[in-house]
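Example record

Each entry pairs one chain with its bound ligand, 1,3-dihydroxyacetonephosphate.
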Amino acid sequence: MRKPFIAGNWKMYKITPEAQAYAKEFKNLVQNVTDRDILICAPFTLLGTLAKEWNNSNILLGAQNMYFEKEGAFTGEISPLQLKDIGAQYVILGHSERRHILKETDALINKKVHAALQNDLLPILCVGELLEEREANKTETVVKTHVVEGFKGLSQSDALKVTIAYEPVWAIGTGKTATPEDADAVHVFIRKVLAEIYDSSTAEAIRIQYGGSVKTDNVDSLMAKPNIDGALVGGASLKADSFARIVGFVKI
Ligand code: 13P
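Structure tokens for the complex follow.
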């Protein structure tokens, strides 16, 4: 069985005192949760603080991006080695804001996936279509490309270390959520693609999160779907109490 995996993506929000207050409150709120994996992906500047606050806790720590080289003359970039060093265990790669605002390509994202795994960081690979692509019935084509290109060259054992986040771009930060049925259908399709690349048992083992306006009032119905294994939460992860409620989604 796939353990539910609830992740927060703080994006470019919070400074140190805010992160410290959140860290203490959130740790208390989720301290008894053992049947779900809990992750916060924070800005680079807060990772050291959070790593100290959540040392020996049930809260995992991740970054939101990285470069694919271990070190070198790459001004302004951050390496997988540096993320490991500061205490990150996960890294979000290929988020739609990086694909569309910062023009990251599938080829670049694939290099980053390889580099993360080579340095013992677990990638969350984001995939998802734009509104115009959905309206043109291109959801499956776009998502398939993101998955196939993202996993290119990965062995089966490395593939098993990757989490996928299906984030339809039109649902991010808009208050529009994909219906649980629509999201589940895309997750089923992603599993079919994974089974074609690897095999069905590998496809069954890889966790697929849904992301896009996940909130306290829709998480239960999303998580009730058999192929939705977790959530990648933006706005609603910024407050400790609302994110703790999402982590504690009720099984229906
Ligand atoms: P929102 O939950 O704010 O829609 O953001 C989703 C997201 O992009 C998570 O990575």
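The chain has one domain: 5-247.
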